[in-house]
Every structure is written in C-alpha cells, then in structure tokens.
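For concreteness, we quote verbatim a single protein encoded this way:
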Amino acid sequence: MFALVAGRFAQADSRARAQKYLLGLLSGVERKNSWSLAELAGDSSPDGMQRLLNFYRWDAEAVRDDVRGYVLAHLDDPSGVFVGDETGFIKKGTKSAGVQRQYTGTSGKIDNCQVGVFLTYVSRHGRALIDRELYLPQKSWCADRERCHEAGIGDEVEFATKPELARRMLARLLEAGVTVGWFTADELYGDNPALRDWLAEQAVNYVLAVSCDYQVTTPTGPARADVLAGRAPARGWQRLSAGRGSKGHRLYDWLLIDPGPGERHQLLVRRSISDPTDLAYYVCHTAGPVPLAELVRVAGSRWAVEETFQFAKNETGLDHYQVRKYIAWYRHITLAMLAAAFLAVTAHTERIRTPPPRYRTPEKGAPEPILIG
C-alpha cells in the first residue's frame, strides 16, 4: 500500500518518516498523536513527526488521489454510493485552523471544534473515506486574514459552505473520470438548491434528505413535502429494509410520490414503524425510472458514514492529531484516511480469500457444532 504513495514524498527522510507515521496509525497505540507515534518509532521527541506534517515537501493532494484510486480499485461495485457528510474534531484553544464554537454531531451539541467535510465511498465490499475538506467559518476565520495567516491559510483560500465543499470533492471525482452512479447526503446538503442543480447538470443520480418544508413542484403548484405525505393513501406505503444494522434489518414504511409528467424529481418519505409521526423526507433525481427498493437502498447508505467516521477515529487516529496549521490538518487526515482504507481493503480481501464455514449434520446424540470467530 505504501508503495502507491511513496513517490509523493520528495526526500528519502520524508518518505521513511511517512512510512513510520502510517505504521503508527495502524498500530495498537491508544492515542495516535505525534508523541506516541514518535515513541513507537524509537524517537526521543515528536519533532520528526511534526516536521512531516508541517515542513517536509510532499503532496497531500496527490496522496488523496492515490487513496481514492486505491479504494475504488478494490471496493468498487456497480451499486456503490458516494456519501457526503461532516464530522467534528473537539479541540481546546483558539489557534487550530477553523476552530470555533459550533455544532457538531460528534458531541451532539455546540462545542469548541473543527469541522471536516468528507466524501465516503460505500459498497457491498466495504466503505472508506476518499476525500476531505476543512470547513472555515466566514466571520471568525475567512474575514480575519491575520488570523488565517497565523494558521497557515493563504489568501487564495476563501469561504465555502459545506455543500460547496461537497461539490468541490465531487467535481474532483468527475474530473478524474470516475463514474458517480449515486450520491446521498443529509438535509444540510439536500436543502441546498445550488448543489441539487449542479448534480442534475452533471447527470449524477441522487437521493438527498430534505426538510419537511421542502417545496415539491406539482401540476397544481408547489406543495410542502409534509403536506403531500399527509395526503397520500394508506395503500401507497411499503415496508422495506434500508439495510442491515447492528440489530438486523432497518425496517421502515416508505412512500414514493411522483409529482407528475415532465418533473424529474420525486419525493421519498420514510416513516417509523414504532412512531408513525416520525417522518423523514428525501428528494430523488434519476436519469430514468428506478425501483423504490433501489432508492431506499441509496438513502440507507448514508447511515454507514457514522460508523466509517467512528472506525477511522478509533482505529487510525483520524481525530488524534495535535496540529494547528492548515496544511498539517490536511496531511494528518490524508494519512489517517490512507491507513483506514488499507484496513477496509484488507478486510474485503480476507473475506474473499476465506471461504464461509461449512457445517455438517451432527450424528445423533453428538453435540451441536460451535462456530468460532
């Protein structure tokens, strides 16, 4: 895996240091920061690891492209879905690039944190992070150029909303010649008309969560999503699985509303079985007719992202960094993504290599066989 990115490091020292850094991220060390990774590598101080993130010459954007190519080469599948979402990185102090008090799902509240917007690839073979952007708030950061300069943020870096950052990452995918069959994301992205219009222009099929007041175009005029769902007959709902969870299939009742001829968008509604008042709404855009079960599958793919974030944070130190500079954030995050991608690909390879266990009927009176592992 490291051979794929070794050429991105300009010097032998940086190349050797990067390999040690990756081995540290893949190790069993509990906290994967510069101090612990340096200790694991046999260094007396974290200076070498800090130089890798802050000063050595290497191309983190090219490594990011290598991560994407590595993931797609091993986990690609016609049913694959690209998912946009963000996660928070809780921090102390005010110097880290992009940090401020803002809401993050990581803690479920407003916290002092950085927020990264990510693109994840999800398929039946596995899932992995393939792109990243650091969100920089407008008032507290982009409007304060002196503060930006202190954090290593150049004048060419301008404010971008989270949907704009997602579009930037998707554009890189398309420019690389990757076929984006499906894209999904939550309400923050689905409620953004500019992102929806851009996806339609690029002929990207999508299932995007939207708010209950999303306006649906109908032959009689625009109508709110929740109003249309309330008018639907009971026979329109179907019970389908949105994929497997930790407790089995995630079953919901689903409703697909087609606004009428000539309208390329459909409204997908999800209803909780235990609480029929709990509804969620999705706007769907496809190049041609798509079965309801396929739209449900794509919508359900988004839930895999939280597990992907948690895996990368726990196993490859995605949030264990201790850096302040803008470039250092991108470098650490990219290497952590590469390490997590290696684990995802390795797991998929082992599943292919190892045949499923085979049972034989026990003889009468013999104990039942026990499956280990």
Remarks:
- Confidence is low (pLDDT under 50) at residues 366-373.
- The first helix runs from residue 12 to 25.
- The radius of gyration is 23 Å.
